[in-house]
Each structure stands twice: as C-alpha cells, then as structure tokens.
C-alpha cells in the first residue's frame, strides 16, 4: 500500500534559487526506499517539505491516501511521520528519558514521566536497541544518540521513518547494526526512506531507489535491477572520472613535519589524541582517513596551533614548534585549511580583506597599517588562479557560492607557498567542476615539494590523492601504510576500529 | 548592638526581596533563551505605576494589579521585538531602561509638577514580631518572594514546563523539531518573567519606600542580574544570592549609622563611600564566581526558522 | 553585482535611520498629546532652537561623541561597553583635579591643561581596562560589571569632590579650572572630532583595526587567523575608556569648568553615547554626526521646557525609543526585500 504520494513538488526560495523543479515521489509500507543524489540535489529539501518544516511553492502531498498540508512538524508527527537528521534534534543537556518525555508531552500533554519510562522500556525490549535512559545525551556516542532518535520516533507511534544521511557519523560496524534494526522495522510494515549519497548503502539495504539531480527526479528503480555504476551515472549524468592522473613517481624529499607522541585533551578533560606519531615529507601527500570525530580535526588544530598538547612534540623542519602560537606557525610556513568555511572566512568582509586573514603579518607596513595595495594584488592573484566568480575583489564573501568560497579558502592558503599544508575536507559541499579543480591544485602543490596532510571523510578522495594513508580511530593512529597496500575492506575495518 | 543587628537583618530582607524578585523574573526569561537587561526598567515602571494607579484609583490592590499589567506589557514588547523581529536583546534592554527612566519623570512632572518625587501612598504593613522587647518586621513581600522562588524551582526542575523552557534555551532547533513552538514559548516566558520582576518594583513602592523617586531603584535591577548569574540560573540559589547581595546593601545603610553613633560625629562625604559598597561587593562576588557557571546555550541568540 | 549590493546596503542604512527616527518621534508625539502639550510647536522649537547656535552645538557634543566612540569601538569587537558613564566621570574628575593641582603648583597654564587631558585619558583608559580584563580573563559579563562601575565611580567621585575638592565660594560646586588653563571651546570640539577621524582611519586601515573587526564579525575565525582575542578585547576596551576619559576631561576643561555636587552636568552622558554609537552605525564619522544631532535635540529640549513647560526628559524617551527601533535590524531587511520585489 502506498503510504506517501508527492506530486509536482516545486520549491523556489525568496532569493530566487530553485531547489525542486516539480518532483514526484512515492513510497510504500514495508519497504526501504532510498533517495539518492549529490550534495544539493534536493533530497533533504523534499523530505523536509514532507515533514512540514518547509512550505512547498507548489505541489500536492498525500499521506495514507489523504491529502495533507502540514504547517509544521507537529502536524506531521501526529500523523506518524518521523524524521531523523544528521545533526540530531535532541536536547544535548537533558537525559534520554527527559528528551523522550518532552517529545511525548508535546503531543499528549497528560502523559506522565513514569508512563513514558514504561513505554520506552517496552520498545527497547521489542527492538533490541540498547539505550541507557538516564544518561545525558551529549555524553553518548553518535551511534547511541541515533538510536535514541529512532526510539523517539517509535515511541510516538511513527509509521513512516525518514533518515537523513544516517551513516555519516557512524563507523562501518555501527552502520551495520543500524541496517539490521531497519530491516527489523521493515518487517513491522514501517515505511522507511533513506536519504543518502552513498552508492554502497543503496545497494546494501534498499528495495527501491529514487535518484534526484539538481532538483529534478531522474528516475525510480528497483535496487536489485541496477548496478552501482548505473546509479552513479544517474546521479551525475556523466561518466565520472573516478581516478585522476597522478603525476609519475615523484620522490618525496626530506621530512618536513614530524608529530611525536602527541597527547591532546579537550575542554572536558577527555583525551582526544592519544600518542599520535606522524611524519610528512616534502612532496608527499598523507591522507588521514576515518569517520568524523575520531581526532582528525583535533590533529589538524594541534598542528595549526589552535590546540595545546600536554605531551609530545611537533617539529617543523627540525624546529620544535610545540609551544608556538598559530601566527608564528603560519609565519614559519604552515598553512591550514579548516573544514568549516564558516570559520575560515569572514562572510561580511570582501575578498581582499579575506585574502590577508591568515597572513596579516606579511602585509604590515609603517605605523601598523596594512598595505592594502598589495592585499588587492594578492586577492586578484587568487581570483585568477582559482577561477573565482564573480572576479570582483570587492565582492562580499557571503555573496559567493559555496564552491567559490571553498576555492577562495583553499586558494588563499595555497598561494602563501607553504612548507606544510594541512587541509581538511577540501571539497565538501563543492560542485563537481570545482572539486576536480581543487584536487588538481593539490597535486600541483605536491610537485612543488610541499608536504600535505589531507583529512577527508571521502574515502575515494583519500585514495586518489594520497601517497600514504593513516587511519584514525578514537584518537589513535590505528593503521598506516602506502596507499597501494590498502583494500577498501581493510580501510573500512580500520575505520571501524578493527585492526589486523 | 541588638538594635544594630535587628536593623541589619531587616534591611537585608528588604534589599534581598527586590534583588530576588528581579533575579527570579530574569531566570524565567533567560532559561528560555531571551536576555532581558531591562530589569531596572521594569522596576522603574512597576514602582512608579504602583504609586500612580493607587493614587488614581484610591485602592492599593488595584494599583498593584495595574502595575503588574504594565510590567507584563513591557515584557510583551521586549519579547515581540527580540523574538519576532530579532532585535539585539541587550540593546533593546538598554534602550528600554532609558525609555522607562525618562517616561516616569515625564509622567511625574505632568501629573504632579514635581521633578524629584511622587506623593506618598499608604504602605503595606509587614508581619510584626516581638522578640525580647524589640520589634522585628518581616516584609510581606519577602515571604512572597521566597514562595515564588521555591515554586519556580519546583516548576523548572520537576515539571515538563521546565523541560520545555530548557529545550528552548539550550537547543531551540531540537525543541522545534519536537513540535514545540519556540517563539510562543519564549514570548510567554518573557511576559511571565517581566511580571515577576514587576513584583519587585511593586514592593519598592508599596512596602518599602511608599513613593517613587529617581533614586528608588538605584541600579538594583542590575544587581538582580548579577544575582541571576551568580545563582547559575537556579531559583533556589538565587534566594541565597539575594540574601548575600541584600546583606551588602544593608551593611552600607546600617554601618555608617552605627559608626556615627559610636564615633560621635556626623558623616557627610563618607556616606558616599558606604554607598559604594554594594556595587563594589557585587563586582568582587561576580568575579570570583563567574568562571564556574553555565548559561543556557542559546541565550541571546534569536531563533531563526527556515 | 557588487555595485548593486553596495547600493542596497546604503538604502538599507538610510531606511533604518529614517524609520527609527520616525518611530521615536511618533512615540514622542503620542506622549505629548497624552500629557496635553502641542506636538507641533514642541517639535518645531526642538529643531529651531536646538540647532540655531553652532558653537553651543559643538561644545555640548564633545562628551557624547566621546562616549559614542567609546561604545562603538568595543561594539565592533563584539563587546558591549556600557561603562562609558564611569569612564567619562573618572576622566572628567581626574582632568579637573590634575589641572587644578598642577596650575597651583607651577602657575603654567598650558602645562596644566595638557596634564589634565593626558591624565583624564589615562584614567579613563584604566577604567576601561578593568572591564576588558575582567571580561577577557575571567569571563565576567561586561554589562553587569560596567553598571556596577558606573555607580561605584559616581559615588567615588562625589566623595572626593565633597571631601577634598569643594570650591571655597560655591559650596555646591567643585573647584574650578583656572581661567588661563581653560581650553577654548571650539578647540575642544576639534580635538574630539580629530580623535574620531583618527579612529576611523585606524579601524579601516590598520592591522589593529582589522583584528578588532574580525573579532567582532567572527570570533572563531579570529582565533583561526592567530589573533589573540583576549588581547583584542582588552585593547579595545582600554582605548574606548581612554577616549571617554578624554571626552570627560575635554568637557570639563573647555565647557563646564567645574563639576557640581550632584554631577548633573555629566550624568547620563555615557548612556546617551550608546544611542549615539548605534545611531552612527558604529562608524566614527557617523558618531560625530549623530553626536551633533542628539546634542541639538537635548539643547532644544531645554528650550522647549522654557517655552512650553514640556519636560526635557522627553528627549531621553525619544532617544531610548530610537535605540530600541535601531536594534531590530531584521525588520529593515524585511522592508528592503519587500521594496526590491514590490
């Protein structure tokens, strides 16, 4: 039986961006239906419209055969639809039970805490989801938090479950457990919609899959009847160049960065880096693989000087820089491209002012004034080399597209001609053309003798670009070696914490 | 000596009551995520309104009621502008304090032609005790304030309303996703908080001073904010904090009197030094305490829906 | 496209200023009607008398331009300096007293004036430093500390004046600035306007100004860039305190020459500075213009009282309403986008 029918859904934002061009979508009970597409294809937007979070500009929605028009998620929840996001919608400072209580109390004001507890325990028993009710949410690992979200949906009698990129914060092992739970729920005749951009996932668990591309529905197919390559082509509408030409045998030079036995603690006193050892040579790209949250960000920040280790050393060109502040490190030749465009760029400033953000020291002239003439030159140089559009240096960064912002961020750090480049998620949220561009620039830098530490959750990217790979798990380097020595399975196991 | 102690305790209660009510109101506000610097302004408006409406109607109860309505309206305006129009909450508070101060003086002048004070009203009588021959007064509102504090603590910690507020203040996105109307909850909290603050202003006129002057509120609204931070947004701690701050102000009143009679001479300039005490003490206390407190995560940030 | 966005920004600013002023005056009109005064005559007197005398206008605007700058600079760094009041007081007092003492000791007018200005600036800077330090190093909320310091300084200065520096003849005034040490009034204005221009140049073009603006727009990015946020906060607060202190000293040395024992001449000027900073959009040149405008209104308010009996505190109300109206910038974004489509 069809539980969801969406016809002609169109969404146009006030600033003119067309997110959906008239999409049809339907799902049945007792199926896991994948919604596949690249970043920005419109999959999340479509589901948020179904969930009542966003209002469609046009289109009709039927749930369980009846026309509906949800004005907010509360209406959708009442009809049994639940959406589980990437970034969870739990209150992190409250316990699991309090979150569940709140979630139920908003629909059923008369319910008591004890009733909620009883119901929760019953469901935990039935579904075999392991959840500690009395723990504060922010102390739980991502996998458990996600289970709480699912429990929250079930306890509110959801019949339709929408999961948005659920495995992006899970290890392969946790992802497998999730799929088992989903299969169990499918047996109970639930409708499950899985939003994802991962082809392997689609093949692993879905019954049918709908592919979206740039706001248009490309098609709906039975998973068993297509190959991954066919799905990929539907996603991008061209044969994706999966392997870039790597420049022929460059011999890496001397060691330019060494991390010795580094230990870093976070603000709550928990170790986030546990005795990490690492070595980067000139002209070498070291890829750091691992699920987000296993210490990669902290490692990058420690190298840049944004985090202080309490044990261990960082050595740049045989100089101990462990105690140096970020600006001194930048002066010595370290460049850092953070994973967040939000924190790497100032959106209310123009391209010129952003170009000097991490190198003001080299632009200071007399009396402490910045040489803005030279700054303009630098900005123009970045614009030209990285093909940034619009090419006017006085444009405010917030008016640039995501891809152009990323190019600016990467370009700014690369034109400094660093000795060591630490780059985190260089192509996230970037369109395909800019992605290729940035990756090519990284390879170019490599031939110029720069040592590069590449952190990315995109395994394909890591494999393509790196000479050596290290895998991080829970703050440790759990595996390392030359790229050719790894298989995808081995990487997946390491990422999930299973070594040899 | 006994007289000194009795005076000290009484004065502490009087001062503490104001600071407590202000803090309790601000806690409700800020738990939901809305900053309200305008406590002083609410004190000014409600203290003045108590006198104004009591004289206009001849009935203290009506005066108090209308003063609370005015406080609620002030909260409503602050809430509408900061929640729905996304105004910067601190700036709104500052502007509001200015408006309240100016407005009350304008009203004073146009109603009674006096720039500095309003006429007196019949004050409330507190509870009288006689201990060992000495008379001891506990203000009615002190009891009210403590009751409100305990009730607030109970509601925030033990009921679902407390959870709803906390969700709006810590993670409004999650609250919205659970189906809570964050805007409406915050607005309600702001109005309710303003009414509780209003009780403090009512007390100033109705039970303490009996009239309104420019010096009635004397920055107590800001001391209430300091108390709120000191209490870590916990109403029970706010009671303790209020007694602490109240004690300092009481000391600044009682001590010079005691010293003057002991030393046998009059203070003129030195009174100013004593008046400084509560404010300096507040700075010191809050400096010692500030690092250990934890404020609502989404405090002061307008919630933006898509 | 950038031309379009710059144009839209200017339109947005004009709309914000205009609408806020209109709202402020509208409320004033309502209050006037309610209290039985004639709005039109009040407003016409306000503007005609307030802005008639440019010399008076310039003199009166000295302290509020200073406190306006004192609010704006930390605001650009993301801080609220509500302590302009205390910084003004301490600057005025220190300036007055050191000029008086140095002149009596040396008989040198220029030396004593300069000492007065410098010491007032330093005192204000130290006062600002206290707030900045507590905020940066101890995470103490700067609004509460500033208000406490306002009251503390108020009583402190009063104590010092009443106990040690009362004028022998007029017992309700402090000692007077010696006649030859007084600064010609227009010079005072030129000085503070010069400081405003200097502030603008530093904010726009120097590396300190750049780091302040980055810290205010995106503190996380500032940390990433290697800027020391604590240093920026403390520096910004100290500089702004120094400017407020200078304003106080200038005001005493060039306009009022003495502080009375209720401090009525300087009371409230710090808070006014907040409104002026906002009205001037935290731009130093805008602050000068806003300072002149608001001083004119205030001065006009006194004339209004003389002619019609309407209380001058009305201007406080107007300014407060303007401050509130200016805070709701989202409203203006809405208005601008409606304009674009309609």
UniProtKB/TrEMBL annotation, chain A:
All residue ranges annotated as the ABC transporter domain in the record: 4-239, 257-499
Pfam families linked to this entry: ABC_tran
Annotated SUPFAM superfamilies: P-loop containing nucleoside triphosphate hydrolases
MF terms in GO: ATP binding; ATP hydrolysis activity
Entry keyword ATP-binding: yes
Gene3D superfamilies from the UniProt entry: P-loop containing nucleotide triphosphate hydrolases (3.40.50.300)
Key words of the record: ATP-binding, Nucleotide-binding, Repeat, Sugar transport, Transport
InterPro entries the record matches: AAA+_ATPase, ABC_carbohydrate_import_ATPase, ABC_transporter-like_ATP-bd, ABC_transporter-like_CS, P-loop_NTPase
PANTHER family the UniProt entry points to: CARBOHYDRATE TRANSPORT ATP-BINDING PROTEIN MG119-RELATED, GALACTOFURANOSE TRANSPORTER ATP-BINDING PROTEIN YTFR
Name the UniProt record assigns to this protein: Putative ABC sugar transport system, ATPase component
Biological source species: Desulfurococcus amylolyticus (strain DSM 18924 / JCM 16383 / VKM B-2413 / 1221n)
UniProtKB/TrEMBL annotation, chain C:
Keyword Cell membrane among record annotations: yes
GO molecular function terms attached to this record: transmembrane transporter activity
Signal peptide (residue range): none
GO CC annotations on file: plasma membrane
The organism's place on the tree of life at top rank: Archaea
Predominant cellular place of this UniProt entry's protein: membrane
Protein's UniProt keywords contain Zinc-finger: no
Transmembrane segments: 18-37, 57-80, 87-103, 109-131, 143-162, 182-203, 232-257, 263-280, 287-304, 310-332
Membrane topology annotation: Multi-pass membrane protein
Keyword terms: Cell membrane, Membrane, Transmembrane, Transmembrane helix
UniProt-recorded name of the protein: Putative ABC-type transport system, permease component
Originating species: Desulfurococcus amylolyticus (strain DSM 18924 / JCM 16383 / VKM B-2413 / 1221n) (Desulfurococcus kamchatkensis)
């Amino acid at each position: 039986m069809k539980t969801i029918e969406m016809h002609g859904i169109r969404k146009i934002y006030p600033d003119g961006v067309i997110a959906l061009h008239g999409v049809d979508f339907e799902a049945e009970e007792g199926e896991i239906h994948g919604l596949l597409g690249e970043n920005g294809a419109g999959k999340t937007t479509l589901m948020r419209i179904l969930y009542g979070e966003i209002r469609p500009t046009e289109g009709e929605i039927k749930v369980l055969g009846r026309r509906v028009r949800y004005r907010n998620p509360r209406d959708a929840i009442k009809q049994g639809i639940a959406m589980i996001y990437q970034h969870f919608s739990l209150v992190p400072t409250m316990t699991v039970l309090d979150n569940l209580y709140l979630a139920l109390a908003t629909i059923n004001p008369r319910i008591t805490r004890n009733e909620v507890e009883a119901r929760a325990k019953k469901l935990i028993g039935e579904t075999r989801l392991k959840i500690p009710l009395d723990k504060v949410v922010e102390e739980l690992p991502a996998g458990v938090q996600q289970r709480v979200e699912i429990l929250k949906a079930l306890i509110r009698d959801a019949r339709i479950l929408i999961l948005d990129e659920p495995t992006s914060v899970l290890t392969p092992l946790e992802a497998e457990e999730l799929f088992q739970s989903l299969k169990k729920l499918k047996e109970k005749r639930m409708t499950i919609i899985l939003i994802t951009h991962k082809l392997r996932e689609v093949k692993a668990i879905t019954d049918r899959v709908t592919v979206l591309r740039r706001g248009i529905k490309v098609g709906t197919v039975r998973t068993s009847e297509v190959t991954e390559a066919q799905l990929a082509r539907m996603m991008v509408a061209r044969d994706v160049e999966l392997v870039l030409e790597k420049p022929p045998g460059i011999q890496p030079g001397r060691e330019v960065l060494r991390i010795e036995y580094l230990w870093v603690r976070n603000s709550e006193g928990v170790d986030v880096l546990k005795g990490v050892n690492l070595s980067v040579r000139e002209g070498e790209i070291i890829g750091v693989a691992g699920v987000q949250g296993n210490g990669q960000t902290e490692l990058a920040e420690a190298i840049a000087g944004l985090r202080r280790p309490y044990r261990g050393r960082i050595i740049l060109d045989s100089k101990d820089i462990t105690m140096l502040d970020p600006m001194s490190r930048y002066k010595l030749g370290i460049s850092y491209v953070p994973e967040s465009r939000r924190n790497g760029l100032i959106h209310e400033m123009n391209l010129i002012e952003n170009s000097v953000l991490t190198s003001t020291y080299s632009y200071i002239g007399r009396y402490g004034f910045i040489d803005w003439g030279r700054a303009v030159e630098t900005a123009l140089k970045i614009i030209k080399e990285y093909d940034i559009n619009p090419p006017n240096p006085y444009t405010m960064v917030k008016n640039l597209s995501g891809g152009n912002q990323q190019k600016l961020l990467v370009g700014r750090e690369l034109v400094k001609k660093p000795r060591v480049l630490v780059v985190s998620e260089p192509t996230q949220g970037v369109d395909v053309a800019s992605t290729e561009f940035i990756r090519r620039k990284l390879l170019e830098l490599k031939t110029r003798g720069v040592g590069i530490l590449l952190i990315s959750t995109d395994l394909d990217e890591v494999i393509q670009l790196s000479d050596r790979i290290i895998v991080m798990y829970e703050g440790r380097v759990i595996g390392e070696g030359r790229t050719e020595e790894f298989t995808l399975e081995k990487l997946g196991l390491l990422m999930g914490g299973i070594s040899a | 000596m006994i007289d000194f102690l009795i005076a000290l305790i009484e004065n502490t209660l009087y001062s503490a009551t104001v600071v407590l009510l202000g803090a309790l109101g601000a806690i409700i506000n800020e738990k939901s995520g809305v900053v309200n610097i305008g406590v002083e302004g609410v004190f000014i408006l409600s203290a003045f309104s108590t006198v104004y409406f009591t004289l206009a109607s001849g009935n203290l109860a009506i005066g108090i009621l209308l003063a609370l309505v005015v406080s609620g309206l002030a909260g409503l305006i602050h809430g509408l502008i900061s929640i729905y129009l996304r105004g910067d909450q601190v700036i709104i508070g500052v502007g509001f304090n200015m408006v309240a101060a100016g407005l009350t003086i304008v009203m004073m002048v146009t109603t009674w032609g006096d720039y500095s004070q309003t006429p007196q009203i019949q004050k409330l009588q507190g509870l009288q005790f006689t201990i060992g021959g000495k008379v001891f007064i506990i203000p009615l509102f002190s009891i009210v304030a403590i009751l409100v504090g305990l009730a607030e603590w109970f509601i925030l910690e033990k009921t679902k309303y407390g959870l709803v507020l906390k969700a709006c203040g810590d993670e409004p996105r999650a609250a919205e996703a659970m189906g809570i109307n964050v805007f409406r909850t915050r607005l309600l909290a702001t109005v309710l908080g303003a009414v509780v603050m209003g009780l403090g202003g009512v007390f100033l006129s109705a039970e303490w001073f009996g009239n309104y002057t420019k010096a009635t509120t004397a920055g107590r609204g800001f001391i209430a904010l300091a108390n709120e931070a000191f209490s870590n947004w916990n109403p029970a701690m706010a009671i303790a904090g209020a007694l602490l701050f109240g004690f300092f102000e009481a000391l600044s009143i009682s001590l010079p009197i005691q010293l003057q009679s002991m030393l046998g001479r009059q203070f003129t300039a030195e009174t100013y030094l004593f008046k400084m005490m509560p404010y300096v003490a507040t700075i010191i206390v809050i400096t010692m305490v500030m690092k250990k407190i934890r404020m609502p995560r989404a405090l002061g940030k307008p919630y933006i829906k898509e | 496209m950038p031309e379009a966005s710059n144009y839209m920004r200017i339109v947005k600013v004009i709309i914000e200023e205009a609408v806020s002023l209109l709202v402020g005056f509208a409320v004033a009109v309502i209050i006037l009607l309610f209290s039985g005064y004639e709005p039109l005559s009040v407003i016409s007197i306000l503007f005609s008398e307030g802005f008639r005398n440019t010399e008076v206008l310039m003199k009166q605007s000295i302290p509020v331009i200073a406190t306006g700058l004192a609010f704006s600079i930390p605001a650009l760094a993301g801080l609220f300096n509500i302590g302009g009041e205390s910084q003004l007081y301490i600057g005025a007092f220190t300036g007055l007293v050191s000029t008086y003492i140095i002149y009596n000791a040396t008989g040198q007018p220029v030396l004593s004036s300069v000492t007065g200005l410098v010491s007032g600036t330093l005192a204000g800077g130290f006062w600002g430093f206290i707030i900045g330090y507590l905020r940066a190093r101890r995470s103490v909320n700067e609004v509460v500390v500033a208000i406490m310091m306002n009251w503390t300084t108020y009583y402190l200065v009063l104590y010092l004046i009443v106990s040690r520096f009362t004028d022998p003849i007029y017992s309700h005034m402090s000692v007077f600035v010696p006649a030859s040490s007084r600064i010609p009034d227009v010079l005072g204005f030129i000085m503070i306007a010069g400081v405003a221009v200097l502030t603008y140049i530093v904010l726009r073009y120097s590396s300190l100004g750049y780091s302040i603006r980055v810290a205010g727009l995106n503190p996380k990015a500032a940390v990433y860039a290697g800027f020391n946020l604590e240093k920026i906060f403390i520096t910004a607060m100290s500089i702004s305190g120094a400017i407020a202190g200078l304003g106080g000293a200038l005001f005493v040395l060039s306009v009022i020459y003495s502080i009375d024992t209720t401090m009525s001449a300087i009371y409230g000027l710090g808070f006014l500075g907040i409104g002026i900073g906002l009205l001037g959009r935290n731009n130093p040149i805008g602050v000068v213009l806003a300072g002149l405008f608001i001083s004119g209104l205030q001065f006009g308010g006194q004339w209004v009282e003389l002619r019609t009996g309407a209380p001058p505190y009305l201007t406080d109300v107007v300014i407060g309403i303007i401050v509130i109206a200016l805070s709701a910038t989202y409203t203006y974004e809405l208005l601008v986008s409606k304009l674009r489509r309609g």
